[in-house]
Amino acid sequence: MNAAAFLAEQVTEHRAVVDATLIAVGDSFSRLVTACSDALAQGGKILFFGNGGSAADAQHLAAELVVRYRINRRPLAALALTTDTSILTACGNDFSYDDIFARQIEAVMRPVDVAIGISTSGNSANVVNALKAARAIGGVAAGLAGHDGGALRGLAEPLVVVPSPVTARIQEMHIMLGHALCDLLERQAER
Hints:
This protein is of the alpha/beta class. Helix content is 56%, strand content 13%. A five-stranded parallel beta sheet has the order 2-1-3-4-5. The radius of gyration is 16 Å and the shape is globular. Helix 6 (125-137) links the parallel strand 3 (114-118) and strand 4.
């Protein structure tokens, strides 16, 4: 296998998904930025969660907001619901893995907050259940997904859907979109 040729194929595929994403998500991304900005301005917080690579993205994005993205500024209220192993394992054992994020949403979310569920397929049961809990509380139930949005379509609003069936490309776009979100929120915090 020619590694250089393989890398070129991957980059070409990545570029195509970047272009398609830019066309597909302008409106939904703008609504997500507005929802998060409004929440922070009202003293709310942003709750990120997902599984696997999306769990890592949740932690990464929460850290960017609490600590800093590019500039030193006041911390912005954000939490990753993927980090407390005692809560995750207790809930998974005592209730169901499908409830690990919903249980935390029920405990810490207020109507002024934004919950951002991250699922490449849009079908992760624990992400779906958490967004249902967020809606029941009256907060913003937002999502980042791929493919066709899966079960998050019609549930998450705003829902930012990366138009690709390839998990790796979706994850690449999710972190790019997350970074853009953090950058915009950081800039607004400095005003």
